[in-house]
Amino acid sequence: MTADVKTVLAAVPNPPVVSSSDAVLAALADAHGRRMRAEEEIRLLLAYGRQFVYPHPYTFGELASAAGMSVSGVRTAYGQQDVDKVAAATGLEPVPSDGEES
Predict the structure, then answer these.
(1) By C-alpha distance, which of 55, 79, 51 is closest to 63?
(2) Which residues of the chain fall below pLDDT 50?
């Protein structure tokens, strides 16, 4: 794993600890927190793979296959906020896109 990828993943906060006297509700809340963290990791990694890898960003198809998503899902999975978060975490500037090849 490259240093940039580790830096991107470190930017994702840990889910809050849930305290509950009900074991089922606590376990569900914990699972939900892990899912939310995983979804944010995926968004940030997709943004990194498309916007910060130079000279050849990963294609939508490559990212879709690795993430278990459709190409259209990858196209819409991350937004400017995610790109900004990757830039802040890594100190890198997003690479201008010449087109939207798959």
Answers:
(1) 51
(2) 102
51 closest CA partner among 18, 86, 9, 16:
86
- Residues for the chain: how many in total? 102
In this prediction, residue 52 carries a pLDDT of 95
Which tokens is 89 given? 């975490």
Between the CA of residue 84 and those of 8, 28, 53, 90, 92, what are the distances in Å?
11, 31, 15, 10, 10
Q: Which residues contact 16 (CB under 8 A, 6 or more apart)?
A: 33
DSSP string, 10-78: HTSPPPPPP--S-HHHHHHHHHHHHHHHHHHHHHHHHHHHHHT--SSPPPHHHHHHHHT--HHHHHHH-
> Contact at 8 Å (CB) between 90 and 83?
no
Map out the domains of the chain as residue ranges. Answer: 3-11+21-90
